[in-house]
Design goal:
With 455 residues, this protein is an alpha/beta fold. The protein contains 16 helices and 14 strands. The strands form four sheets. It has a six-stranded parallel beta sheet with strand order 1-2-3-4-5-6. Strands 9-10-11 form a three-stranded antiparallel beta sheet, with helices on one face.
Amino acid sequence: AKLAAFGSTAHPKYQASEDPNLQALLASKTPVVTIFGKSWDFHVKQALKISLDKNLKLIESSIAYLKKKKVSEVIFDAEHFFDAYKENPKYARQSLEAALHGGADWIVLCETNGGALPEEVFKIVSEFSSSLPAAYGIHCHNDGELGVANSLAGVRAGATQVHGTINGIGERCGNANLVSILPNLQLKMGYKLVTASQLKKLSSLSHLVYELANMAPPFNQPFVGPSAFAHKGGIHVSAVEKNPKTYEHIAPEVVGNHRRVLLSELSGVSNLLVKAKELGLAFKKDDPVVRQLLKELKELENQGFQFEGAEASFEILMKKALKRFKPHFKLLGFKVLDQEIAEDGSFSEATILVEVDGIVEHTAALGHGPVNALDQALRKALERFYPSLKQVRLKDYKVRVLPSDSGTASKVRVLIESTDGEHTWGTVGVHENILQASWQALTDALEYHLSQVLG
């Protein structure tokens, strides 16, 4: 890996040797410096408001100055190059020639507005890689949702450097997504870019960047998303069990992901058998419990339950059906007080009564809203008996009003994502009362943790 300082060509009012921007790039002392310049005559006239010839001199002199100052690698980003070529191919070419005359080590063709199609990118990159010898790169944006496709087209046409970002993060619709480009180049196009062990870290890298950026990872992100190798339809699951190639374009483990079998109204016997095997609860296909579970699953989903993102709740449901579930606490009752005080704002308090191994615990807690107060009170009551619950925290809380003509009396679905710092799991609750729905999801979340820790 090499660090690259990034900036632009010299400002029109400065000589390259006097330009503050170029001086700042040199002061960074990076082994690589990338500068962008105008290749589109429209931009030269409208944005810079200088002559076309002066812009070419800016490009050449800026690069020449950096090379004179012993920058080992200078990359020239030809901004808006594909739009430039479509409107004035002669001037677009002149901008690249100016960069090469200045000593640029790389010429990167930038699809800055993100509106080109793969066939256009392939044609234009091919033309220059064959007629104007240079080391070429491709830099694409995703405004037409073609950032990845255009980058791959650029490589096919001769580009050997690809610009992009992890997860495609960037302004407007984002940049080309390196998380998709890398496995496509290596697994589909035959380029040897990283080792197999490095490629296995792709999913964890993607998730780390989302975590640092405080962004929720899209479930359907190709290669690394939780749903990339998730199967729901019974026919799909049955086929994948026989041979994963039936519905998977690569083995998920290659990119550090894993196969998931989802439970829903589309589930069949195959889904249940696979999930049971995953949970160490294997039983035979003709076991009456299978049909009963399938029936119960569909009834619950008709009521509004959704187990695709709440597999911990489904594991509890399955263990109950097999009579292998031992509850770690029993609710005797709870009360939630939520009131608005004019000067102090809202005020929420939950009082709870639970029983653990014959011992009754009665406690109360304050919270930011009634659900948070209930969560705090439950934890306060149980942590005396189960200290490991101190490590469990609520990671995400979602409420959805289910379709109904009942207005404010409609059922709501609560989905909770919890973590203990190492593992993450989802639980679900459904009820007309949001507190009851939240209680179902909360208790499942804590019960699941205790079952993993205590059995």
